[in-house]
Design goal:
- The protein has a single domain (20-281), classed as NAD(P)-binding Rossmann-like Domain (Rossmann fold).
- It contains nine helices and nine strands.
- The protein has helices at 2-9, 32-43, 55-67, 82-95, 120-140, 142-145, 162-165, 171-195, 256-267, and strands at 23-27, 47-51, 71-74, 102-105, 154-160, 198-204, 220-222, 228-230, 278-281.
- Helix 2 (32-43) packs parallel to helix 3, helix 4 runs parallel beside helix 5 (120-140) and helix 5 packs parallel to helix 8 (171-195).
- The protein is globular.
- GO terms for molecular function: 3-oxoacyl-[acyl-carrier-protein] reductase (NADPH) activity.
- It catalyses: a (3R)-hydroxyacyl-[ACP] + NADP(+) = a 3-oxoacyl-[ACP] + NADPH + H(+).
């Protein structure tokens, strides 16, 4: 531990980047916050594995990073497919010469509905995507995190204020995001003492993404069985309403780059003594 602290103290300038030499899997990184996180990680010297269900978008993100002088590999697939998770970890380890240092569990979307109208399919799909899939990825990657080679290891689970404070119309999503916070703390307690693995959740508030854009814009995702799920919030409601930002001290929504920057901060050695926390990135809302 003292050796690691000395290593951090001796490289405060990080001339090769905050994440130099590290290998990161970022799920849901074909667009939005995930894509920005991949870009920022690569800029800081990480080898980035771009995971997304949309193969074309994943390939484009990886290509842009590689063209800019970074190192990225697209490994597209469905996080609800257990075999894909095995492939993702295998290819990430190969890309990292036998090592994986960071996992960012970012993949997900919302499928809202009030409690008395929510279907079993809505419930089960969101729980599977936001809880079961991250758990299976962490479990599959365990051999690359339960190591004592002196190198940093970090797991970041993307949560939401819906999992901390609840949100009407999001029984499934609220439960799932509360659940990922619990998983985060378990990882921190199990893998911290011997292996030094850090695990934190980042609970986002109102961030400008396709999930908070106007539903009328027409964004959607398609489930494995072909059902299209409309994304966004109807104009005039929720984050689309005229007074949506009045309870945010900064009086504005956050950007995808700001959200990704918080993920980079948590992954970096600047957060080397922070683990097991739910870090609120909300512009001050619900403080």
């Amino acid at each position: 531990m003292a050796e690691r602290a000395a290593q951090i103290a001796g490289h405060l300038n990080y001339p090769k980047g905050l994440l130099a030499g590290q290998v990161a899997i970022i799920t849901g990184s074909g667009q939005g916050i995930g894509a920005e996180t991949a870009r920022l990680f690569a800029n800081e010297g990480a080898r980035v594995v771009v995971s997304d269900i949309d193969a074309a978008k994943a390939a484009q993100v990886a290509e842009n990073i590689n063209k800019s002088g970074g190192k990225a590999l697209a490994v597209p697939g469905d996080m609800l497919d257990a075999e894909y998770i095995k492939t993702l970890v295998k290819k990430a380890a190969e890309f990292g010469n036998g090592k994986i240092h960071i996992i960012v569990n970012n993949a997900g979307y919302t499928w809202d509905g009030v409690i008395h109208k929510m279907t079993d399919k809505q419930w089960e799909n969101i729980i599977a995507l936001h809880n079961t899939a991250p758990f299976k990825l962490v479990r599959e990657a365990a051999p690359f995190f339960r190591v004592t080679d002196g190198e940093p290891r970090c797991i970041i689970n993307i949560s939401s204020t819906s999992g901390v404070h609840g949100n009407a119309g999001q029984a499934n999503y609220g439960l799932a995001k509360a659940g990922i916070n619990g998983l985060t703390k378990v990882i921190a307690k199990e893998w911290g003492p011997k292996f030094g693995v850090r695990a934190n959740s980042i609970a986002f508030g109102h961030i400008l993404t396709r999930l908070t854009a106007a539903k009328e814009d027409g964004a959607f995702v398609t489930t494995p069985d072909g059902e299209k799920i409309a994304l966004g919030i109807p104009k005039g409601q929720g984050s689309q309403s005229a007074n949506a930002n009045l309870d945010i001290p900064l009086r504005r929504a956050g950007t995808a780059t700001e959200a990704a920057s918080s993920i980079l901060a948590v992954a970096s050695p600047l957060f080397s003594y922070i683990t097991g926390q739910i870090i609120m990135v909300t512009g001050g809302r619900n403080m």
